[in-house]
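Comment thread on ticket #2218

A.B. wrote:
> Attaching the input chain for the structure job we discussed in standup.
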Amino acid sequence: MEGLFDRIQESIAYINKQTTVKPIFGIVLGTGLGNLVNEMEVTTRIPYENIPNFPTSTVESHAGELVFGTLATQPIVAMSGRFHFYEGYTMQQVTFPIRVMKFLGIKRLVLSNASGGLNPNYNAGDLVAVRDHINLQPENPLRGVNDERIGPRFPDMLHTYDKEILAAALTLAKANNIKLHTGVYVSLQGPNLETPAEYRYMNIIGGDIVGMSTVPEVIVARHMDLPVFVISVVSNQCFPIDQITETTVAEVIKVAQNAEPKMTTIVKGIVEKFT
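C.D. wrote:
> Ran it. Output below, let me know if you need it in another format.
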């Protein structure tokens, strides 16, 4: 059976036939945040379905393509839409594109998402730079045979979130009068939203925001020693309990899209700084 390393090489061989861009930054655009692509000078778009070994995104608002070009004059590759465990994919499939981007040559990874606010001081539309996470997903993308050409058997998670990029993001936010919290992201399987009791539990254990993605990607990036920055849009308030209202996908997308210009300012600034 073809191993992970070989599948990565097969995907890269196909991609390199489609584009000459050699990206130094990888960006993953989450729910409602796909318009960052409009800030790019795009040279190539590759539908996921055309790339060997890639799954196909099934989530509303996720375009489902790998986009190559420049942002703030820097060569980048952007995932316009990501994969989730709740779609029925394995964790290895969910995180496979992160491995491909690493082997394409990126030096840093920026992940974005929309999340529920567990911190009572967060409001819908606020931005949160993730400084740590709590993983409550039922599966781990590193489970199984490990290939030392890709990463170590037991990666240490102490310095998972890059402090230098985080500090730069906070400076950029302040300079542009953008409120940017730092917080702990709790990752669950989904696709259902959480119960009031679950929101209370996650608040008690130290969570500031909650979502259904990102952490598997972060684990794989850490496995490959790839510096990571995660920025999240609080799409709905989940705490205190008496302030919870029913939430729809349309509402989540709308809030994320409204906050998108602020996120774009920060992400572009980061790309400009770390050349």
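A.B. wrote:
> Thanks. Noting for the ticket: The mean pLDDT is 91.
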